[in-house]
Amino acid sequence: MTQDELKQKVAQAAMHYIKDVAIVGVGTGSTVKHFINYLANIKGDIEGAVSSSEMSTAQLKSVGIPVLDLNAVGTLDVYVDGADEVTPHKHMVKGGGGALTREKIIGAASKKFICIVDETKCVDVLGKFPLPVEVVPMARSYVAREMVKLGGQPVWRENFITDNHNVILDVHNLDIIDPIKLEQIINNITGVVCVGIFAMRPADVVLVGKGTEVITL
Ligand code: 5RP
Fold it and tell me: What is the model's pLDDT at position 175?
């Protein structure tokens, strides 16, 4: 199976968690694109979705699924999203698509976080994938210097503005041995809007497309 076929397979497997769910939290990325296509097949059975990005919002609307404001719907039962890396502890690095802040908000506001990945995303230790950090534009250089102090090599994602009108630093070569601690440390740097370590609120279920199967962690 190709990587994209594996993404499609885990996206389909995530539909198992959508039974009797009225409002679905929807992430961002190429794996979630498949998920939205499956969601479209049952759009008559759901009230709508809360979306983590303008990109997913556009796709949801294009398939006829109402997009709802998180403030209007309260706690969500289920949130489905991809990841750039995931460990056996269900800690993740996310933000390759730049939607990390809204993704973290929806994850926090959801009872169940279902992470859908192909096997290439599974790691023992986070950090090979450059860590996305969303930053207020005027704090870019300051936060970059703080990242260097933490041992990382920040690279400004040029020509990219997030849905929240901020910028992204992709931080290379960080040793993320203690993801919860590093998430807290980076969260505390002034000017950081959100760090792409998802460890304080890990996934609850990870569906991995591996070989021709879907494995549940
Ligand atoms: C976007 C994300 C995505 O979930 C992550 O980048 C994985 O994307 P894909 O499904 O395309 O591999 O965090 O901000």
Answer: 85
